[in-house]
Amino acid sequence: RPALGLLYIHWHGGMYDLGKEQLLRGVQAQPAYASGCAERGLVTLAIDSWCFGERKHQADGKLGEENAFKLMLWRGQVLFGMMMFDEFRALDYLASRSEVDVRRLGALGMSMGATKAWWLAALDPRLKLCMDVCCLTDYDELIRTHGLKEHGIYYYVPSLLKRFQAADINALIVPRPHLSVNGRQDPLTPPAGVEKIRDYLLPLYRKYGKESDCHIELFDCAHVELPEMRTLVLEWMDHFLMEGALHVS
After folding, report:
1. pLDDT for the residue numbered 249
2. 6, 106 Cβ separation under 8 angstroms
3. How buried is 58 (Cβ within 10 angstroms: 0-12 exposed, 13-18 middle, 19+ buried)?
4. 27-77 pLDDT, tens per residue?
5. Is the pLDDT of residue 247 over 70?
6. CA distance 1 to 12
7. Cα–Cα distance, 14 to 85 (Å, whole number)
């Protein structure tokens, strides 16, 4: 019987050497997920993003990211767009595996990985579950709190604010299950912005009779995954991927 598929998307954290190894090794802010995924029989894939892991600038990871961003602007490209393209291709590969049930695919990430997870879920309906940790950011609130310095240069998509806010992008996930856990003291995710996005999305889920399938919560922490956050993530994996498998015909 085909297994569930999970795309794990690594964080930034200025740790340019880490990349996909975060799935196996974890970091201080987020212990490794590999064992939890394996215990659940998830076929889990993680790749190195542009500028990270095996794709890092040899001498200086930060310089490599900045140079990639600048060069892509000159060429009419966007670093975040190229990063997302790779995640789409990773999802394509995961879905192509014979041991994976394409009807039961999820995405999980923290920080940069969280941002990619909700963008990917918004743009690819193959994802049946989105779980993002510590990076649900309302752009206007980030500007108001002088928080632009908190995110890496990859984060900034030219002209995005002319048409979209984070709530608009996340609305494209509706009515699929979406879990977002964030820190109230995290400068990357001003709490008023998290609440703004939550209050925008919940009525949309309510229209489908699926309000409980959207859970956006603030915890008393900064940019770190607390044990109770991990518990929620694993519960959502179990409920929406594992138990949901029973209802797939």
Report:
1. 39
2. yes
3. exposed
4. 999 999 999 999 999 999 999 999 999 999 989 999 999 999 999 999 999
5. no
6. 35
7. 21
Residue 245 pLDDT: 53
DSSP codes of every residue in 81-102: HHHHHHHHHHHHHHHH-TTEEE
Alpha carbon distance 84, 151 (integer Å):
17
What is the per-residue burial (b if ≥16 Cβ within 10 Å, else e) of 72-92?
Answer: beeeeebbbebbbeebeebbe
Helix (H, G, I), strand (E, B) or coil at 15: coil
Reported in sequence order, the residue ranges of 16-73 that DSSP labels E, i.e. its strands, are: 43-45
Please give the helix or strand (H or E) that residue 131 lies within, else none.
strand 127-133
Domain boundaries, the chain: 3-247
Helices and strands (H, E) in the chain, number of each type: 9, 6
Interatomic CA distance for residues 171 and 190, integer angstroms: 19
CATH superfamily of 3-247: Alpha/Beta hydrolase fold, catalytic domain (3.40.50.1820)
For residue range 101-127, list pLDDT tens digits in order: 999 999 999 999 999 999 999 999 999
Assessment of whether the complete model's pTM goes beyond 0.85: yes
Separation between Cα atoms, residue 48 and residue 50, nearest integer Å = 7
CA-based radius of gyration for the chain? 17
Strand partners, 85: none
Would you say 177 and 232 are in contact if contact means Cβ atoms under 8 Å apart?
no
Residues 146-183: tens digit of each pLDDT: 999 999 999 999 999 999 999 999 999 999 999 999 99
Grouping H, G, I as helix, E, B as strand and the rest as coil, residue 71 is: helix
Instruction: Tokens 């190894």: give the residue.
Output: 21
